[in-house]
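Lecture notes, continued. The same structure-token format from the folding unit now serves as the input rather than the output. Read the line below as a description of shape only.
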């Protein structure tokens, strides 16, 4: 738990830096998009605006999760990270839908795009997004945390949006082909959707109290009955997680008459911790 707390502190700082970088560049991208007439830039600015809010929420989730449990929230505030990750994933769906809608509208109603202005702003945005992504993904970052992954996905979407805008600007400057802007915007939206679905599905699975993805409950039952003397049957197993790092298990163990209940509970909890990395388990023992 101490290691997770330390990594969360580092992630919290990285999120604050990334949020500041994203927020400072939004105004420049909006102005550049309006001046150049580029949908890709305006769409990326809108994405960055929601990213600023998402990064801020992700930062707040880490801060809130440090609060101790109380009598009304006996598991503490860690689950707020999953709620934020789920919300961040959903916002990506709406962003992608809006980009596709605007892109189709621009394909049907072409507008003149100023390629040089678009290229300058897109290049600056790319630099900012690369820095923000490297800050989030750097050494010591808690990259497996779902809240952190949702935040990085937002920044990655911005980075890809800047790349698409830069490529579209190059095509427009060299060929004058205006559809490059909305077409590349749609491509970025599809890439964003793929990552968003993974974050939403994983966060939703945790919120629905699903079994942790890395835990095979059937194999767990078999392992306990085969490797702990006196344990005859394991049933009523419930496995879920508060966050990806905090797995919980409750189970009933049918034990032999010559095995002390306290010994059975200790042996089961020790094997759960040593072999399955589950350090929070509630075990109820029964006799034949």
């Amino acid at each position: 738990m101490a290691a997770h707390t330390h990594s969360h502190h580092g992630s919290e700082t990285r999120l604050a830096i990334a949020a500041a970088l994203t927020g400072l560049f939004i105004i420049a991208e909006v102005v550049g998009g309006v001046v150049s007439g580029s949908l890709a830039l305006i769409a990326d600015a809108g994405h960055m605006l929601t990213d600023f809010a998402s990064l801020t929420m992700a930062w707040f989730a880490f801060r809130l999760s440090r609060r101790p449990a109380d009598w009304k929230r006996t598991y503490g505030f860690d689950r707020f990270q999953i709620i934020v990750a789920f919300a961040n994933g959903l916002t990506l769906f709406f962003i992608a839908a809006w980009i596709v809608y605007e892109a189709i509208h621009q394909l049907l109603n072409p507008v003149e795009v100023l390629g040089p202005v678009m290229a300058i702003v897109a290049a600056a945005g790319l630099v900012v997004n690369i820095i923000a992504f490297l800050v989030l993904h750097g050494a010591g970052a808690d990259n497996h945390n779902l809240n952190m992954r949702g935040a990085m996905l937002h920044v990655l979407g911005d980075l890809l949006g800047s790349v698409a805008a830069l490529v579209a600007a190059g095509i427009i400057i060299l060929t004058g082909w205006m559809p490059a802007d909305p077409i590349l915007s749609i491509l970025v939206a599809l890439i964003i959707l793929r990552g968003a679905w993974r974050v939403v599905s994983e966060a939703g699975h945790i919120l629905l109290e699903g079994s942790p993805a890395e835990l095979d409950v059937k194999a767990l039952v078999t392992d306990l009955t085969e490797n702990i003397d006196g344990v005859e049957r394991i049933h009523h197993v419930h496995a879920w997680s508060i966050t990806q790092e905090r797995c919980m298990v409750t189970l009933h163990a049918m034990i032999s008459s010559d095995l002390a209940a306290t010994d059975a509970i200790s042996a089961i909890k020790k094997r759960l911790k040593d072999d399955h990395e589950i350090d929070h388990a509630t075990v109820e023992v029964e006799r034949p």
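Point for the exam: The two ends are 37 Å apart (CA to CA).
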